[in-house]
Write a structure and sequence with these properties.
single chain; alpha/beta; TIM Barrel; eight-stranded parallel beta barrel; 8 strands; 38% helix
Length: 217
């Protein structure tokens, strides 16, 4: 049955995409600290290659930073490591089914699930998830084989298909985020526009502050 959690995602949902960060010369843990110091209340750690001891150690450090800042820590894809680290989990359509993952996680762990069209969004309503992601809203360069962009009109039309909190993702920038919220998203997940070309803790912190200012206007 659906999760009974009262979890409500913040309006800005930063994703620590390791590939993006390392391409810009910024260690994920440094980026995490900067985002948290700026006021982020949730972080998703996305590491697509095989996990190593160094990966686990990095994830542990970021988890501890999140705990210190009273922020939610979410892992992408990996239910096994989410259980090991006491983290929340975000699943894609090709990952472990949410019902199976829920049995592995701690009872209070946050569970998110990605959808990419109206049929998937409607079907996911019966999953034991705390929130659903929908996207890509716009063209995105953060995923190697993205689904077709949904656009704002479909976001608005499909919002009523699920009662769960909805996180929009995919190509969302500071310029487009207000329109995405207005179209029905509870939250926007951000990768590309969160990390400046000159990527260091100071610039990341400043960029996160800019994002958070949008939520107060």
């Amino acid at each position: 049955m659906p999760s009974a959690s009262a979890f409500s995602p913040p309006k800005v949902y930063p994703i620590l995409d390791c590939e993006t960060l390392r391409a810009r010369g910024c260690p994920p843990a440094d980026a995490a600290q900067a985002l948290l110091e700026a006021g982020a209340s949730i972080l998703q750690y996305r590491h697509k290659p095989a996990w190593t001891r160094d990966t686990v150690a990095e994830a542990e450090r970021i988890r501890d930073l999140c705990r210190d800042h009273h922020a939610h820590f979410i892992l992408d894809d990996r239910a096994d490591y989410a259980r090991l680290l006491g983290a929340g989990l975000h699943l894609g359509q090709d990952d472990l089914p949410p019902r199976a993952a829920r049995d592995l996680l701690a009872p209070d762990a946050i569970l998110g699930f990605s959808t990419h069209n109206a049929a998937q969004l409607a079907a996911a309503t019966v999953e034991p998830a705390d929130y659903l992601a929908l996207g890509p809203i716009f063209t995105t360069a953060s995923k190697r084989n993205p689904d077709p962009p949904i656009g704002l009109r479909n976001l608005t039309e499909w919002r009523s298909l699920s009662r769960l909190p909805l996180v929009a993702i995919g190509g969302i920038t500071r310029e487009t985020a207000p329109a995405v919220w207005a179209a029905g998203a509870d939250s926007v997940a951000v990768i590309g526009d969160l990390y400046p070309a000159i990527c260091d803790p100071v610039s990341i912190k400043e960029r996160m502050v800019e994002w958070l200012r949008l939520t107060t206007t």
